[in-house]
Design a protein that fits this description.
290 residues, alpha/beta, Rossmann fold, 9-stranded mixed β-sheet, 10 helices, 36% helix, globular
Length: 290
């Protein structure tokens, strides 16, 4: 159920990368002057999934791997809400993979923050879908969520950030939420968020991250060039971060799900269900049934 309650003390380990995500989300919502009462944060399963408990917004604790389906439902019930889904790579790239792909296809204006640390931290450090070869005996190549996101031919928003650079993370979250508020569609941000207890990658990632916007040929409206820049950066042993793709407002109108289904942005949660307003529809239905 949706709840609005006082935040509880965090259960994360000291130094966890998720604190950077929490701080950046708070800062972005504050900068955009979005009221807590108008914000719904849908949390997944795992350490990251408890984020909605740690600050004062409406929170929904989703089923394992199903946070995106539930976040889309919240958005369609009341498109005027700012809806953020937040979970981990085990939640989103394993059991939640089907919903991850379909979120791009549906293209509802929600922000999905996926906190990636290459491990299942809550269950004590097993290899997650993004774990590198050799980690805890892993023999599978790691899944790349960004390349998968870029392969979906939908005019939405795709980015990656790093908890070790909270200023840039906040800027990207703010841009993504603005994109949502304009009805631009789905915004996906993979947040590199180290698990200091079971897979402390702060030093390694800090040395390897490269802002893709600083590279020659960067054009977030051109998927082909971004694919090339992304792969070439990885081949150099670096980790590309930044905004990879976003719809250019002047190129095409928004194609978000809620604008297609509810062009006036009035969802079922705000519908007038009084008898007087719906009597004609009720009578028409009864005449068909009888």
């Amino acid at each position: 159920m949706v709840q609005s309650a006082k935040p509880i003390p965090s259960t994360w380990c000291p130094g966890c990368g998720h604190f950077g995500v929490l701080s950046a989300v708070k800062k972005s919502l504050g900068e955009l002057k979005i009221a807590p009462s108008n914000t719904v944060l849908v949390g997944g399963i795992g350490c990251s999934g408890g984020i909605h408990n740690f600050f004062e917004v409406n929170g929904l604790h989703a089923l394992h791997g199903r946070l995106l389906a539930q976040a889309v439902g919240v958005k369609l019930s009341n498109p005027r809400l700012t809806v953020i889904a937040a979970g981990g790579d085990g939640d989103g790239y394993a059991i939640g993979m089907g919903h991850f792909i379909h979120a791009f296809k549906k293209n509802a204006s929600i922000l999905y923050i996926l906190m990636m640390n290459e491990t299942y931290g809550l269950t004590k450090g097993q290899a997650s879908p993004t774990a590198p070869l050799g980690f805890e005996g892993n023999v599978e190549r790691p899944f790349d969520g960004i390349l998968t996101a870029l392969s979906q031919d939908v005019p939405n928003f795709v980015a990656r950030t790093f908890s070790g650079d909270p200023r840039t993370m906040g800027r990207v979250f703010t841009e993504a939420i603005k994109f949502n508020e304009e009805g631009g569609g789905f915004a996906f941000v993979e947040a590199l968020s180290p698990c200091v207890t079971y897979n402390d990658t702060y030093k390694s990632w800090r040395e390897r991250v490269v802002d893709i916007a600083t590279l020659p040929g960067y054009d977030p409206s051109d998927r082909k060039s971004i694919f090339r820049l992304y792969l070439e950066t990885q081949e150099r042993g670096k980790i590309p971060v930044g905004v990879f793709h976003r719809r250019v407002p002047s190129a095409a109108p928004p194609e978000s799900l809620e604008l297609k289904l509810l062009p006036d942005r009035t969802g079922p949660a705000e519908a007038d269900i009084t008898l007087g307003a719906n009597l004609g529809s009720y009578q028409k239905l009864l005449s068909i049934v009888t």
